[in-house]
Amino acid sequence: MHSMRGRYDPILLGVVLMLLVIGAVMIYSASAIIAMKTHGSTDYFIRRHAVYLIVGMTGMYAASRIPYQSYAYKVAPLLAAILISLLIVVIPGVGRKAWGASRWMPLGPLSFQPSEFAKLGLIIYLAYILSKKQDRVKLWWSGFAPPLFVASVMIGLVMMHPDFGTAATLLLITFSLLFIAGARMIYLAMLGLAGAGFAFAAVSLEAYRMRRILAFLNPEQHKQDIGYQIWESLITVGSGGWTGQGLGAGTQKLLYLPAAHTDFIFSMIAEELGFVGVVFVAALFAVLVWRGVYIAMTAREAFGCYLAFGVTLSLGMQALVNMAVAMSLLPTKGLTLPFISYGGTSLVLSLTMIGILFNIHAGGQPFEEPHARRAHAAKRFIMMKDA
Amino acid sequence: MAAMACLMAVFFLLVLGRAYDLMILQGEKYARLANSQTEVSVEIPARRGEIFDRNGAPLAVSVEKSSIYLMPGDIRIMYGPRPPSREDLREQVAGQLALALGMPVDQVRKRIHAQSSFQWLARKVDDETARKVRDLQLAGVGFVKESERQYPNGSLAIHALGMMGLDKGIEGVEEHFNDVLNGRKLNVTRVRDARGLNLFADERELVGSRGADLWLTIDRTIQLIVEQEIRAAHEKSHALRTAAVVQDPATGDILAIASWPAYEPENFQTASVLERYPFAFNGAYEPGSTMKVFTLAAALDHRVLQPDERLDCENGRWTVGGKVIKDDHRLGLSSIEQILAQSSNICSAKIGLRLGGETLRQYFLRFGFGARTGVDHPADSKGLLQPAEQWGQVVTANVSFGQGISVTPLQLTSGVSAIANGGVQRRPRLVRGMREPGDSSIREFPLEEGREIVSASAASIMKRLMHAVTGPQGTGKSANVEGFKSAGKTGTAQKAEKGEYPDHLRIASYAGFIPLEKPRITILVIVDEPKGDRYGSQVAAPVFSRIAARSLKYLGVTPVSASGVAAVLPPVNDPAREEQRPAAPGSGKVPELRGLSMIEAMNQARDAGLRVAPAGSGIAEQQDPPAGNPLPANREVRVFFTSGVHAREEP
What we know:
Oligomer: heterodimer
Shape of chain B: elongated
Number of domains of chain A: 1
Number of helices of chain A: 13
Number of domains of chain B: 3
Largest sheet of chain B: 7 strands, mixed
């Protein structure tokens, strides 16, 4: 019955393409002036964005062709690779620093952010382990603790970068997938408490986080220093009105709004396309989440279900958090708006995630596994789900 | 899973709600904020007009300087780490600015903390300082080009020109024509980027309109002659002050007006009251014997005195109304030539009394005493003519020979000019014309109608009488200029001090015109409180002679020819003569100005028919267009002066 579905969910594909088009147009509008000032040509950023788009589309296509079940067999090496790359970035001299954080790893003319891959890695791992453990997730030692431990190591490494935003996202993904898998509420409550404590410690230990919180709580008072970015973002969003200033006509990108083409591109959309544009973009994400959840619920087995849900949750939450930050509902996190922001790794990863969703939607592919034992193991948990 | 989806839906609605709140409910507020930071409105003062002498030589010029302002609420550091708090930021910026400007940090701090949205930080700073501040790359710090006044001739004609405060003229012509010179401010609204760079990248754009340029009636050369001569006389007599006025009697144009001591423009703040006092304009003084000219002219005009009449001068002592009047030269029955030439107080009093107080007063008023002259200068004043009811016998007698009346040097000069001009007086003129911004040429102010004060015949008789003053028996013989006939009158007035007239305090003066036949210039010289020689004939008349000789030579008035008539070149304000000047070298090329001082460069440029738009100060380093190029259409050459070397070394 699964084979009757097309490989690509047309609604999901349409939504993603629309988001990409809006993204490309807004990046050009928002970056032309800063590109001219810093790189001497208005199309500097949009050309680089095109390269990432090609890489991302390739990633999406590849992911849609790779049977998602095969990830289950690669969990251990995948996890190891992610942990190592997260570690490498922290080693002085290897990682590229930007904005006081060493999150980037140079890769030819481009660079990538291992913490972005960590997100997908964690989702795959959690989907695998939770679908394997099934009801044992209700137990502490054999069910709840192992995934929690792996997630904690990963979050800890990301915190060392330091990347509070991604760490919080990883925590949220872990929490959500454990919840869906049916973990006991008491454990989840404990996890929530631990997370809150950890967040409090993180904030009070690093002065800049505390300042971000202060800026978030009262951007206008701090508009000349730490609250500058968020205050400018509020002005940018607020000056949009119903229909906006018109595409390309916004004035806030005249170096007023820092990161106008990356983390704060949502503000530019608001300014130039207005409330109508904001609702449209938000609606596209809502449809994306709806299709993701639908794919998760109609997945062939638990692994596909958890994987689809994890990916959907990650994309949807990131979009919501990004929009919330731009409007000062949440403190600044450094998260991009998926498919729209300029930002290489995030774009490639987001498209790859969509590819995975396509593949889950198509029901995966029967695969020939040379190792009978492994094949048997895989079939066993697939059957467990069906049972 | 449904629970998670619900949570996300709630979050989703929260985000949309927030967007609605920001964009629709509070949209206007944020749109206003966005406009206020991206649009900036700056009021750009116009470049102040310049002041030239009657031939176009610069007397007061405008030099472009940068002024720096703060928008305290917008201050930010564009590059580098942002300070953690607003206080740290302000402190850091205050330190940087104080260092760049060489200002006390307290002052900068005060301005940064000011509650206003616009604060001048430093006005009219030099280019180097402006560059240092620009290099700090601060947002909220802006630059505007303003013009700074410079007086390329130093103290020359400073009492006429007056002085500039920071924004407006506070004395002299600068004050009187302040609005005209300042021109209209330009209000410019622009979109700027966060560094304010879009707007201020090219400050040239921010140069507003220009004020009008003024052409004075002053002739710089004659002014220079006058100032040299009065300074020499001042030092020789150890006087309190010395003043002189040179006027063209035919037009009323003031060719030179000066008093000494004066001040150098850069020392204005520390100048003494005496140095700042524009004595030649408003220094009301008791004129003494020079006033007899007007008493006699009035009597002749009123036909109460006959040209061939002889009066008894009572041998030097006469009592009227209980008051004794004395003469220095004891005269008996005397002709009116003798009366004036030997300056008889007694006979002047008799003539005045013959007219009667009321008539004499009316004549004085017609000559312009007791009223402002109407000259375009804020120091123009009335002097003191006593009210009619006080003009009894004693007052009338006294006033007839210049006691008990106060006049200004300009009033007296103007009165003598009326005689020189055949009885017709023209209002003293200090400004000849102006060029409004946009005009290509000077608009000359039309000459006002002259007023007939006394009849031509009375004026003609007065000329003869005043010429007699310069004769061998006259008090004014030392005023003579070789080769010219002239006319004049000495004055030696006692100065009142606490109601007394102490013998040692005198004001010596000489007023006259030359050449006698066709007077070109009227000159008044006043030496206030000379020491040693104290008579007008001794200290003032020789100064008249020297000023007259040098001025006539400069004006090209040749000494009396065989026919006995002075050969005269066209008058000073002949337009034909004016036209010749700019075209003089006829090369049509821009001259080399580099290496010249500002005043030298301006003279060179003027000779080539160009005007200089100066920037900076010191020695000309660059010019645009360069030397050898054809004359630019706007007839303006930009010259950048550098302060690196203040004076060229003489080999």
